[in-house]
Design goal:
This protein has 322 residues and is mainly α. Helices cover 81% and strands 0% of the residues. It has 14 helices and no strands. α1 packs parallel to α12, α3 crosses α4 and α4 packs antiparallel against α5. The protein is globular and about 55 Å long.
């Protein structure tokens, strides 16, 4: 498995090198030199997004009567995101880790955390649909616009599954019968708790959705920052279309640790598809990668400190978690 990961990363790095060579190394270096001015802004936007997402998570936990400090939640989110970013299939790794870092590991805590995740995906899907429609408008005469239609249709179907009140897993468990894995059976209870949360706390759901939509706006603001840095004319439709492309790139690069090479080559291709300088797309992806690696370093550092503190002072840790 490790050899396969190395092979995948090496292949992605080769693709990145090929893209950079086709664009011209001198142009890439020039863009990266200019993007240094935008990096502090991207870090500031990322910090604001972390605050909003932590507030959303705290809202879902408080609705279930689970109290947790803001700094603890922010650290848990950053560390789980960092581990997921450096791993294959990030969300599969990061979400269980985020739940395990909670002081309360009950089913209500898991359900509240997954509600936070589900609402965030819902807000991301809303922006993805809007971006896909904008991309269709910009590429109305392009023969390669068909995947955007498929993306929009799949996103709408996913949003419908998230929003529908009817349980999904019980039917799947009954269909599998004895072959159903135990983890899926446990998921039935968690899904039921999530649907009950939606019914009991509609006000909390609305607040979480508003916070997550604000987070999506901050993500789009990163593209605006790069456009402003390079003095590229733009409008809201272009920004949304590029963010839709960014979501596609992330899904396609999910099997690559840290999505090395896929983000850069994908965003360069997306910028080129919309008639924008491909080197600017590469610069945006590299600036985001620098930001993500810094966040991952800080998050994993916090997790390491927390683990060492718990081992060194188990009595204090037990008191603080009581």
């Amino acid at each position: 498995m490790k050899k396969m990961n190395v092979l995948v990363v090496a292949s992605a790095a080769c693709v990145l090198a090929f893209v950079a060579a086709r664009m011209g190394w001198s142009g890439v270096v020039l863009q990266l030199t200019a993007v240094r001015r935008a990096l502090p802004i991207l870090l500031g936007l990322s910090l604001l997004r972390l605050i909003l997402q932590t507030m959303a998570w705290s809202t879902s936990l408080r609705a279930e009567g689970i109290q947790a400090g803001f700094a603890e939640l922010a650290g848990a989110r950053s560390s789980s995101r960092g581990v997921g970013y450096l791993s294959v299939l990030g969300p599969v790794v990061s979400e269980p880790l985020r739940i395990s870092l909670l002081r309360d590991r009950s089913e209500s805590a898991a359900a509240a955390t997954l509600i936070d995740t589900g609402v965030y995906w819902f807000s991301s899907g809303v922006f993805g649909i809007a971006g896909s429609l904008c991309a269709l408008h910009l590429m109305a005469r392009n023969l390669h616009a068909a995947p955007l239609v498929v993306l929009a249709a799949l996103t709408i179907a996913g949003l419908f599954v998230i929003a529908r009140p009817k349980l999904l897993l019980p039917s799947l468990v009954r269909a599998l019968g004895r072959r159903c894995p135990q983890s899926l059976r446990k998921g039935v209870a968690i899904e039921a708790a999530m649907r009950e949360f939606q019914a009991r706390h509609p006000g909390s759901i609305r607040r979480i959705l508003l916070l997550d939509l604000a987070s999506q706006i901050l993500i789009a603001a990163e593209v605006v920052t790069i456009f402003s840095c390079f003095h590229i004319p733009f409008h809201a439709g272009t920004v949304l279309a590029l963010e839709a492309a960014n979501r596609v790139v992330k899904m396609m690069g999910g099997l690559v640790p840290a999505r090395i090479g896929t983000d850069e080559s994908g965003m360069a291709a997306a910028f080129l598809a919309f008639g924008l300088p491909s080197a600017s797309g590469l610069a945006l992806a590299l600036a985001r990668r620098t930001r993500d690696l810094l966040e991952a370093l800080l998050g994993i550092g916090w997790l390491s400190w927390r683990t060492k503190f718990s081992r060194r002072y188990p009595f204090r840790s037990a008191i603080s978690h009581a």
